[in-house]
Write a structure and sequence with these properties.
The complex is a heterodimer of chains A (328) and B (479). By secondary structure, chain A is of the alpha/beta class. Helix content of chain A is 45%, strand content 17%. Classes of the chains: A alpha/beta (328), B mainly alpha (479).
Chain lengths: 328, 479
């Protein structure tokens, strides 16, 4: 009996020390944040390159966009860069909170048709390669709606965004939807292909943001605040034309294109300054507000069966950090 | 010396006959040269691909031009083309030039006050500076500038001045008369603003754009770079000078090796003991092998998403994938190899009183060691085949990230260079392991491969070297 008792005691001790050890590990572990090749998020590489993240307990992971969403949904990340619409889609598995609006898509999300197709209506009955249920899907639905069409009028072929150039080139589909740099590659590699619709025609449909898990926001609010500070340092740096060449070199290398190719991306992704972002954080209807835009995405997602019931999209937005940062 | 029969009488084609080693070496070389020859044929034969132009001067302008051959399919230029990289078919290239000429007309009309500025042309010093920079590839070709000076606006300013005033001259193939006139017209605007470069005085009114120019090139499809281009890409990757690939090849190579060997090592730790047990005792054979046999038909990559969920997005799921892809084969192969051990050896050992433990460690393992070694060599090759799929899981890493990203940008020269690196690594590892087999297990009597022969020759050379004075003294003392 005594022996047994001491054994349980020992086990308890081990378990307790394991918990302590695990907890200390968890504390030392930096926050993991995914970012991908969207031109609104690639600028983090400037901060990484220049050492602006030193002293902040974060680790940036360079991933495929949809890969990063999967990893976020699996609980492997504390923060993930997503569009406001996709955050709702992922929200079914992993609720998240938007703490930073990086940019709005202003043309870099493109609906590209093969040679011979001039506009959206000409694609009736044709195959379109895009990533089902994600941002480019939303874009195409908007394009169809604007042209008095529905999803029934096209056949969607589920294609990873970064493989759309290859797929369009092989002729397996008549059109693709992708963002830069993939869309630019498609336009170059398929001579005669053209943009039939882009996010420039619906600015505010797609906001690109940093979403974080509710737990990490609760526990690491300070760290997230610091990160917001770094982001606006990046924005300030990029908006100064004297830095542009240096910035382009870092950005272009990150996504394996040339600086000349990268420069037009800056127009297609409108990176918001703090002053420009503040009005977007206000609750309002329509594309001018992140709330309005998310509401539109939510309606779309329900209407087209991406998920069944409307989401509480307001719970995905927390303007308090930005308000605090702006007040400083 | 026995006279050998004249060489010509040895037949090249003898059914099941072996060939002399000189011919084997020759054929081995040929087996590599043959695919290279096929590749070169398709890459270099001029008539196979349409006459095209490799861009020397590109443009930042975008637009479209009517196509007289197919009115419903105009030539569209909506992306930025890369000088030195992009090759355009003649017809498209001419349309590209036409587009720029047309835009220049519009700019001229705007400057003359007869029309509005086309919407995509901006009134900014930045876009004008970029017009000047478009001479960079030519300046590099003329050795007037280095690769890195692609944003050295001061130098471009001076270059345009020198070209406009005739101080510097370029052959017509570099700068056509048409473009020279554009240079001169622009210089008038520039020099009126400031004779030397001053960022703040850089004019904002639109400059004319250089008409694209290029040199004739073979219009190979992008997936077919020429051997020399791949070689060049490999060289740049190794030196770390590639303009299109940022990462260090060496670090990535290390990461990939760690995944393959890590996964393989874990597979060995699990697979070999189970295989040995299953091969020795029917109990374990019946307990393990049916499930393993079933499991090996489930493709390892099918577990990819699950592994990322369970193990995160770094090395762990990748090594596990290599492990999952290798271990079922390993268990079955090791078990089968163990069963090939001569049963009389086991009987004899048991007669002599060997227990189960010593049976395995003193009879089975020594008995099959050489064949086990060979199995592992083959299985290592198996592990390599999972590398690319494994490295795509979670955060892309290693050589695969280069292959993947560069493939998506259609930079196939870099892609092929990396694929070849993987191929050579696997090949040489295998050859070395095969050579070492003869060193470790000389009794197997397997024919040595070329590496084995080289090793043997080196060893012989060392052994036959006369001992030095010091060595003699040492030997004497030892005696």
């Amino acid at each position: 009996m005594k022996r047994n008792h001491s054994a349980t005691q020992w086990l308890r001790n081990v378990a307790a020390s394991a918990v302590v050890f695990g907890a200390s590990l968890a504390q030392a572990e930096p926050l993991k944040i995914a970012y991908s090749d969207w031109p609104g998020w690639t600028p983090w590489s400037i901060a990484i390159e220049k050492g602006w993240l030193e002293g902040i307990e974060v680790e940036f992971e360079w991933m495929d966009y949809v890969g990063s969403l999967d990893a976020f949904a699996a609980g492997n990340l504390d923060g993930c860069h997503m569009t406001n619409g996709d955050a709702l889609v992922i929200g079914v598995d992993q609720p998240s909170i938007c703490i930073l609006i990086n940019d709005y898509s202003n043309g870099n999300d493109m609906f590209i048709a093969a040679p011979g197709f001039d506009d959206v209506p000409s694609l009736k009955g044709k195959k379109v390669g895009l990533e089902e249920g994600f941002v480019t899907h939303l874009l195409v639905l908007q394009a169809l709606e604007d042209n008095g069409m529905t999803e029934e009028d096209i056949t969607i072929v589920n294609t990873p965004t970064d493989q759309t150039p290859q797929v369009l080139k092989t002729g397996a589909v008549e059109a693709v939807a992708a963002w830069q740099p993939s869309s630019g590659t498609a336009l170059r590699e398929v001579p005669g292909s053209k943009v039939v619709f882009s996010s420039a025609e619906a600015p505010g449909l797609i906001y690109d943001c940093l979403f974080v898990t509710p737990e990490s926001l609760k526990e690491h609010r300070e760290t997230w605040m610091k990160l917001i500070g770094v982001w606006y340092k990046i924005v300030e740096y990029m908006k100064d034309e004297d830095n542009l060449d240096e910035a382009l070199e870092i950005l272009a290398k990150r996504v394996s294109v040339t600086p000349e190719e990268y420069e037009p991306f800056l127009d297609g992704t409108y990176i918001l300054t703090l002053e420009e972002a503040l009005p977007i954080w206000k609750e309002a209807e329509g594309f001018g507000s992140i709330y309005g835009s998310s509401k539109i995405s939510d309606d779309f997602n329900v209407k087209y069966g991406v998920y069944e019931a409307p989401m509480d999209y307001k719970a995905f937005i927390d303007p308090s950090l930005i308000a605090e940062f702006a007040a400083e | 010396m026995p006279s050998s029969p004249p060489k010509s009488r040895k037949p090249w084609f003898k059914v099941r006959g072996s060939l002399p080693s000189s011919r084997v070496t020759l054929l081995m070389g040929a087996s590599f040269l043959l695919p290279l020859a096929v590749w070169s044929f398709f890459a270099y034969t001029p008539g196979l691909w349409p006459v095209s132009f490799e861009l020397r001067i590109a443009t930042d302008l975008r637009g479209q031009v009517a196509n007289p051959a197919a009115p419903e399919e105009p030539h569209v230029f909506q992306t930025i083309y890369r000088p030195g990289r992009d090759v355009m078919e003649k017809e498209v290239f001419q349309a590209y030039q036409k587009m720029v000429r047309h835009k220049n007309e519009e700019i001229r009309a705007y400057l003359a006050g007869t029309s509005l500025l086309p919407s995509e042309i901006r009134l900014s010093a930045r876009s004008n500076k970029k017009v000047l920079r478009r001479l960079h590839p030519i300046a590099v070709e003329m050795a007037w500038m280095t690769e890195e000076q692609d944003t050295a606006d001061e130098r471009f300013y001076a270059l345009w001045r020198d070209l406009a005033t005739g101080e510097k001259r370029l052959p017509n193939r570099f700068l056509s008369q048409e473009n020279l006139e554009i240079v001169q017209a622009n210089w008038e605007v520039l020099s009126a603003a400031s004779p030397t470069y001053q960022s703040s005085l850089f004019p904002k009114e639109p400059l004319l754009h250089l008409v694209p120019s290029g040199k004739k090139a073979i219009g190979r499809p992008s997936y077919l770079p020429a051997p020399h281009e791949v070689f060049l890409a490999a060289q740049q990757l190794i030196e770390g000078t590639s303009a299109r690939e940022d990462s260090s090849l060496f670090t990535r190579y290390q990461t990939s090796l760690a995944i393959v060997f890590g996964g393989f090592l874990i597979a060995c730790l699990v697979g070999i003991p189970i295989g040995l047990l299953a091969g020795t005792f029917a109990f374990f054979s019946k307990l393990f092998e049916p499930f393993v046999d079933f499991f090996r038909y489930m493709p390892a990559p099918a577990f990819g998403t699950l592994l990322v969920f369970l193990l995160g997005s770094h090395e762990a799921p990748k090594m596990t994938l290599v492990f999952l892809g290798t271990v079922p084969q390993m268990i079955l192969m090791v078990a089968n190899t163990t069963r090939t051990l001569d049963a009389s050896l086991l009987d004899a050992a048991q007669t002599l009183g060997a227990g189960r433990g010593s049976l395995i460690f003193r009879v089975v393992i020594p008995g099959i060691l050489d064949r086990l070694y060979n199995d592992l060599r083959i299985l290592l090759g198996w592990a390599w085949t999972w590398l690319v799929i494994a490295e795509l899981l979670g955060v892309k890493s290693g050589l695969t990230e280069i292959i993947d990203t560069q493939g998506r940008r259609f930079n196939f020269d870099i892609v092929y260079a990396v694929i070849l690196l993987i191929g050579f690594t696997g090949f040489f590892t295998d050859q070395i392991l095969q050579a070492l087999r003869c060193v470790f297990f000389p009794w197997v009597g397997e024919k040595q491969n070329w590496i084995g022969k080289a090793v043997a020759r080196i060893r012989q050379w060392f052994l036959s070297k006369p001992a030095t004075k010091g060595e003699k003294v040492v030997r004497k003392q030892a005696a």
